């Protein structure tokens, strides 16, 4: 989002304080409404830093550097092999 300097965010949260779900590739943080703010790993890699709560209108800004993110999956081009007996 190009105008996120104009967004009204509830808080700024360090990525280290968020919970990461590796299966869903999703960072979450508790929202005061009882739900959780969410931002995907894809969005963070795409330089988005705004996490939204799906239940209310609150948003937080995630403070991070690209080095804080999990490494991208290896794309070595090696196909899995199967062994036959």
Task: Give a nutshell description of this structure.
By secondary structure, the protein is mainly beta. It contains 1 helix and 6 strands. The chain has a domain at 11-64: Microbial ribonuclease fold (Roll), CATH 3.10.660.10.
Multimeric status of the protein: single chain
Using only C-alpha atoms, the radius of gyration works out to 17 Å
Tell the overall outline: elongated
The CATH homologous superfamily of the domain at 11-64 is called DPH Zinc finger
**The biggest beta sheet, please?**
3 strands, mixed
Tally the helices: what do you get? 1
Strand content: 25-35%
Q: Give me the secondary-structure category.
A: mainly beta
Q: Strand tally, please?
A: 6
Please give the order of strands in the largest beta sheet: 1-6-5
Which sequence of SSEs, written as H and E, runs from N to C? Answer: EEEEHEE
In angstroms, what separates the terminal alpha carbons? 54 Å
CATH architecture descriptor text of the domain at 11-64: Roll
Helix content: under 10%
């Amino acid at each position: 989002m190009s105008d996120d300097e104009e967004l009204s965010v509830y808080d700024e949260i360090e990525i280290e304080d968020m919970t990461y779900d590796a299966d869903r590739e999703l960072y979450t943080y508790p929202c005061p409404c009882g739900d959780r703010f969410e931002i995907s790993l894809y969005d963070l890699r795409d330089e988005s830093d705004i996490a939204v709560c799906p239940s209310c209108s609150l948003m937080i800004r995630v403070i991070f550097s690209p080095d804080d993110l999990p490494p991208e999956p290896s794309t070595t081009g090696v196909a899995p092999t199967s062994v036959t007996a």
